[in-house]
Specification:
single chain; 209 residues; alpha+beta; Metallo-beta-lactamase, Chain A; seven-stranded mixed β-sheet; four-stranded antiparallel β-sheet; globular
Length: 209
């Protein structure tokens, strides 16, 4: 298996590293995707399926941690081509579906500088609106093809940000509610609700600890 595409992080969980974002593959016989990268991640996902000996039709579920384009980018491809079921929190569902537009803000000088230029490149990442199949509340346990996953609403980065905890695998998918790019976890730099982002970060870090 090529480490350039799939990196094993747990018994049934693999990471795909896109340039600026991670997306995850859960292999439970058939496939669950957690986030889908930008639209440029499509060939990476297709290659990952080959490495696992899977077919496109094996992608049954797509979990979205939040509405940003670098996490939603290929979700529409798998819904259309594989008839996958797409799940996202109710508070972000209308943004994914194109019925609502929402802007975040940068925290700190670096983030404010980056966000000022983000709009210049956002057009290149745009994808058609996607109607989610299921809206999550953030207070439920869902069945991932036989694997239980606890949904945790962690608003702040976006109002509908969710984390997904797989207790049997010892894995917590935090999305961008936790920023680990500096080597240690810190709150996100881009947020829709600064106070909620800090509170959600503290909850998740306590859970991981």
């Amino acid at each position: 298996m090529s480490a350039d595409v799939l990196e094993r992080v747990a018994e049934r969980v693999y990471r795909i590293r896109e340039r600026f974002v991670n997306l995850y593959v859960i292999d439970v016989g058939r496939i669950v995707l957690v986030d889908t990268g930008t639209k440029g991640a499509e060939p990476l996902v297709r290659e990952a399926l080959k490495e696992l000996g899977k077919e496109l039709a094996d992608i049954r579920l797509v979990l979205l941690t939040h509405h940003h384009l670098d996490h939603v980018g290929t979700a529409g491809v798998w819904k259309r081509e594989a008839k996958s079921t797409v799940l996202v929190h109710d508070d972000d569902a209308d943004v994914v579906a194109g019925r609502e537009r929402r802007k975040g803000k940068g925290i700190g000088l670096r983030a404010k500088t980056l966000i000022a230029f983000a709009g210049v490149f956002a057009w290149s990442m745009r994808v058609p609106p996607l109607e989610p199949d299921r809206r999550l509340t953030g207070h439920e346990t869902i069945d991932l093809l036989g694997l239980p996953a606890v949904v945790i609403h962690v608003p702040g980065h976006t109002i509908g940000s969710c984390a997904f905890h797989l207790p049997t695998e010892g894995v917590l998918f935090a999305g961008d509610a936790v920023n680990g790019r500096q080597g240690s976890p810190v709150p996100p730099w881009f947020v829709e609700d600064p106070g909620a982002a800090i509170a959600s970060f503290e909850r998740l870090v306590a859970k991981e600890g």
